[in-house]
């Protein structure tokens, strides 16, 4: 991704510290296989999850987790890491999925789904992957460097801001991280443009009070 000619370029170029921080991050891959069936052949009462454990280390990221939502005719599974970078045609991936399903539900499983969708985030020009992760080269300072706005040489003001899950030191790779980073940038821009002091988002903590609800609280008023 980092060497790909189709990614956005900056003029003037981004500073070395930021380029190094980008280079230090891992770029992960998690693809989805979504299968629509004529009718559910699994337990259809509530959220339903099941797992498939590969017999080989190489295949451990391949269709390991399956899930559905209540009353749906859709099953979803995942292809992670090197197993996600399958250059197989979609038909073969779906065949593999059906093979796993027929071994779990030998009586009920149909031969094929009605429809399917296999994501290829690695080839998506708006993504080139599916999220950041801490690589062996990532240091905590890199998050700060990824977050730092760029100053215009002309006006000496911050003109380019950076949000996204990859800028979140605490909740990287997640919706929480993406959302909080958006709040941070909105507050920083308001400070810069309007001169209004907004509460920093750095003190927001996501507290998992129980299994179902996540609430936000702030350390200081
Ligand atoms: C299969 C899968 C399952 C996941 N499950 C979970 C989960 O259960 N819980 C969880 O918390 N997180 C999950 N995540 C992670 C979560 O989806 C991401 O962390 C989050 O969406 C990242 O948000 P973002 O705003 O940083 O980036 P994105 O959502 O990728 O947003 C970036 C946006 O920028 C746009 N863009 C890119 N390049 C350009 C360009 N050149 N010009 C204009 N626009 C551009 C893209 O189209 C995109 O809309 C999952 C991710 C995947 C792939």
UniProtKB/TrEMBL annotation:
Q: Name one GO biological process term.
A: chromatin remodeling
Mind telling me which SUPFAM superfamilies this protein's record contains?
FAD-linked reductases, C-terminal domain, FAD/NAD(P)-binding domain
The UniProt entry, under InterPro entries, shows: Amino_oxidase (IPR002937), FAD/NAD-bd_sf (IPR036188), Flavin_monoamine_oxidase (IPR050281)
| Location of the Amine oxidase domain | 9-189
Keyword Oxidoreductase on this protein? yes
Q: Which UniProt keywords apply?
A: Oxidoreductase
An MF annotation (GO) of this entry: flavin adenine dinucleotide binding
Report the sequence similarity comment from the record.
Answer: Belongs to the flavin monoamine oxidase family.
What is this protein's record name?
A: Amine oxidase domain-containing protein
The species is Caenorhabditis angaria
């Amino acid at each position: 991704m980092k060497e790909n000619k189709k990614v956005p370029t900056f003029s003037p170029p981004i500073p070395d510290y930021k380029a190094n921080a980008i280079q230090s991050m891992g770029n992960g891959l998690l693809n989805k296989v979504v299968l629509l069936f004529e009718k559910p052949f699994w337990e259809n009462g509530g959220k339903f999850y099941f797992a498939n454990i590969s017999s080989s280390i190489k295949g451990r990221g391949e269709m390991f987790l399956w899930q559905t939502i209540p009353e749906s005719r859709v099953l979803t599974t995942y292809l992670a890491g090197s197993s996600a970078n399958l250059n197989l045609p979609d038909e073969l991936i779906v065949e593999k999925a059906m093979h796993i399903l027929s071994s779990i539900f030998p009586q009920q499983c149909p031969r094929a789904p009605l429809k399917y969708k296999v994501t290829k985030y690695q080839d998506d020009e708006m993504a080139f992957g599916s999220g950041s992760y801490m690589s062996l080269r990532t240091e905590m300072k890199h998050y700060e460097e990824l977050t730092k706005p760029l100053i215009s040489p002309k006006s000496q003001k911050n003109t380019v801001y950076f949000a996204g899950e990859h800028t979140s030191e605490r909740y990287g790779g997640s919706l929480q991280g993406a959302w909080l980073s958006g709040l941070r940038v909105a507050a920083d821009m308001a400070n810069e443009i309007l001169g209004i002091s907004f509460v920093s988002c750095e003190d927001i903590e996501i507290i998992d009070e129980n299994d179902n609800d996540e609430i936000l609280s702030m350390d200081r008023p």
